[in-house]
Structure formats: structure tokens, C-alpha cells
């Protein structure tokens, strides 16, 4: 079996060599593994033994595998790649141009670890031992030992196969707000297609009668991808994505739910039970707590470094949210979700990472460049940041209440909050459909019932003193605030949030580059201008600031963190910036404002009046 797997990999990498897929550099470290240069160097005296051979015997969706291995000619450059399916995928890739030969075979490890990671004497003895965590990804797994480092890999040996007891099981539920306030959606992943089982959610009030709601099913084919690597070496079948709509919820009530599939032989497959709290009625006066961040990505709890430390803060952010989950009502992740960049396996790993959060509270997402952008696909930016995904994975893996999920802009309410989420990967300038949406979203909120008006977008459409924006001379996404600042001012947006810049920054209440009020830790009285906040430190590698500080920039922190908004009532809002490393507050401010203060005239937001009596 080991030699058969090795032969298949040789066929794969030789075709990849013709394709020329793997590029040096870039932000997706799986590309840095030069699999196209791999050669066969099978050593019959080398081995990898993986145990146990079956995971999830008690229904678990993850498990730890112990690896024991030996390589008589060991070196510090030896590494172990985790492959799934175990046969390194014999799927055929489409050629990227007419000059390439077809068929082309695809493979890519889903993660890797150096052989000496937990065995300090590996180089001297050739013997190694380590533990790796696997999640249920609908296929089996094998482990391949390579020498030659990442740049010149030589396949030495391949392990036995590991599998989950039920690889098709429903996994990784993620909640999202529906189109109306008393509707919750549940999206999950499984290996069951509609020709094999009927998906549904069994749910009801905690301790009360349960009902069943059907789920719709979507899937994604390789032909849906727009380019490499998503269409080639990064392709991995993402399974079936199911979404169910739980309607007519009672405000603030607790509900339990579990995912189900009724197989056509009459048997059932179930997930474990979960719970959530229904949203408050819009305008309800109660304690409401919202977490906001961007650019989190994913990382591995076992220390495997498939991302080469590109997202070192990701787990800390996740752990802090889990720790405080009883004090969180809603999560808003504003783009650059998991940085799969065309390596489809990473979406499973991300949804598994956030499951403790997304299965309990609504996890709303926005679109970023690493989800959407690819040349010739209608994205506003003609770069390859999505790795050929062109938005398809994000739009399918996560539900949002957008009119058209290909245009990822939408609004959502939570009690006293009204959120307008823009899509910076599509044109937002005056005259575009998105500009019309933004103005409609801002203009139709009832500020007497929902006093806290929040604008969110991935790229910085407001203000940022990041180094790369400063180099452009714009301190923003070009054409950003020039297009939208009059809307923010006219409709008195309290706070505008952005990601994209991997750090934290808060401005004064600013309009047209001028502070209309000095930055403070407490604001009271009439609205003056919008406070702009960059909160892109969710986990991806940190960005640098410009060497000088603009007048409108009040507080900067080059670290991983997130923002928590707490609305105590209609007149008091608390803003807190917390570090992911310890959960402590490093910046804060409060707003105290009555409804007449919202109605009051401010610069460029005065209502027209008449002299008539």
C-alpha cells in the first residue's frame, strides 16, 4: 500500500511540474511546499505507523493520532505531510491553458509538521514520535514522510490509513441571523447528498416540544472555481452544505437543536445537541453584547505549521471568545475569513475551529479580498488573493441575509443595534447598486428604537495610518471616504469598522480629515462625526504603521485583538478593544446620548427647515 501511494504521488507531482502550479512566496504557505519537485526515494527500512486506525467511535468530530516513525538517514529537513484522501487524490485537474497536457492530477497536503518537532533526538537516532489532531473531513487520511525540506521534497514512506467511524456525519454548525429578527439559520457540512438522505434540524424551546425543519442542500464542483490553485492542486471536495431556517422564535428565549439526516433506508444520523438564545425584538431595551473583528484565519491546536505562523493570533482570538461566550450575543467577522486562498481543505478546518462559538451565537461574516478577488470574475480588484475561489466558498459555507449572496452586502438587526455590512470587493461608488444599498440601509433605521448605527466593511473605506495606505498617499482605500463620508455624516453613523489592516486603530470623531470633536474615552450629547475603527488583528500576521501619526489617529496597537460593543440601554454604549493574548481591555470609550441628541443638527447633517408656520 505504501509503494502504491508513493507511485500515485509520483504521477501527481510529475503532472504538477508540467502545470507549474507552485509559486514561491505569497500568503498561502501551502504553496511554499514545492510538491512539483517531489521525487520518489522509498526507503524500505523507513516507516510511519499511525494509530488508532479509527477515530470518532463515540461520535466525536476530532481526534488525536499518534505517529511513530523511523528514517535511518534522517535530517532536520525531514517533514510529514498529512494527506486526505489517503490516496493523495487521483482526481483529474483541468489544464490552465491549452499548451498543457491533460489529464493533470491534483494533490496537496492539508497540513504538515517537521519530523523533529517533538522528538529532539530524531536527527541523531532516526526515530520520531508526535501527535497530530485530525478533524472529520469526510475522507480518510495518510501521513507521508519526506526528506529534502519543503523546497526539494523526496518521498520516503507512507503510513497506514486513518478514518473516522462515520466520515459523512453532520458537523460544524454555524448560526446566522435570518432575514427577519425572529429567524435563525443553521448551516452545516456533511457527506450526505440529496440522493442518499434528507437533511433537517430538530429543534425547540429548551425543555419543550421539539419540531423538525427541513434543510436545503448545496455543493460545489471544481468547475465552480475560477482558477489555480482552487481548481487544481488546492481542490478538495467540500462536501454538502445544508441550511435550515428556524422561524417564529420567541425573543430572548433559549432553544436547543441538533442536526439530522434521514437515510432512505429509514435510519437516522444525528449530531450532538446544541443550544442558542433567540435575538431580542428590534429596539428592545436590554443588555446586548457584540464582538467585531476581521482577518482571523485559522491555526492548528497540535502546533502543526502549515501556515508558517501566518496566522499566529488566530487561536488566541478563538479561545478568548470561547472563554467569554456567555457574555457574547453576536459575532461579526468582517472579511478575510480563513485565508484558504484556494486550498479548499482549510474551510473545514476553520469551521471546526469556530464551532464552539458559531454553534452557540450567530456568526455573521463579510467578504474580503481573500474570499472574492480574482481576475476576470467581476471583483472590483483584479488580483488573485482568493486563489481562484472567487467568492464561491464563502458564499456557500456561510449564510448571510443578502438579496444575492454573490453581492455580499446586507443589513442585520440585533435589539438596539442596526448593522450595515458593505462588500468592498464590489464597487461602492455613487451610482452603483451597492451605494444605493448603503444609503437605503443607513436611511431607513428608526433611531428612536435602534440608536446604535454601525457601518462595517473589510477594506478601510474610512481612515487608516497603515504603512501600505500611507505609501499610496491615501490613508484609506482609494475612493473610499470620498464616496461615502457624506452618507456617514448625514445619517449619523456612530462607528465604522474595518479589517484588512492587521492591527488596531481608533480615530477621533472625524469628517473630511478633520476632528470635529477631540478623541476621548467618553462622548456625550449630540452626534458630531463618525468614529472610525480598524480591527483587523483577528489573527493574521500584523501590519506596520506609517512612521508618523495623523492628527485624526487617536489610539494604535500593533497586536492581535477584537472589539466588544455593549449596549446597556438606548442611551449608553460601551466600546472596548481587547487583546487576544489575555482578553484585557487596552482601549475603550463610552457614548451617552439621548434621542434628542440624535435629532440635533450637526455639521453637514442638518435637516432642511421652513419658515412657514
TrEMBL record:
Residues 290-504 form the Calcineurin-like phosphoesterase domain. It catalyses: a phosphate monoester + H2O = an alcohol + phosphate. Residues 1-24 form the signal peptide. Keywords: Glycoprotein, Hydrolase, Secreted, Signal. Residues 174-277 form the Purple acid phosphatase N-terminal domain. It is an enzyme of class 3 (hydrolase). Residues 529-588 form the Purple acid phosphatase C-terminal domain. Its EC number is 3.1.3.2. Residues 48-166 form the Purple acid phosphatase Fn3-like domain. GO terms for cellular component: extracellular region. It is found in: Secreted. GO terms for molecular function: acid phosphatase activity; metal ion binding. The keyword Transcription does not apply. It holds the Pfam family fn3_PAP. The keyword Glycoprotein applies. InterPro entries: Calcineurin-like_PHP, Fn3_PAP, Metallo-depent_PP-like, MPP_PAP, PAPs_C, PAPs_N, Purple_acid_Pase-like_N. Belongs to the metallophosphoesterase superfamily. Purple acid phosphatase family. Homodimer. This is Purple acid phosphatase.
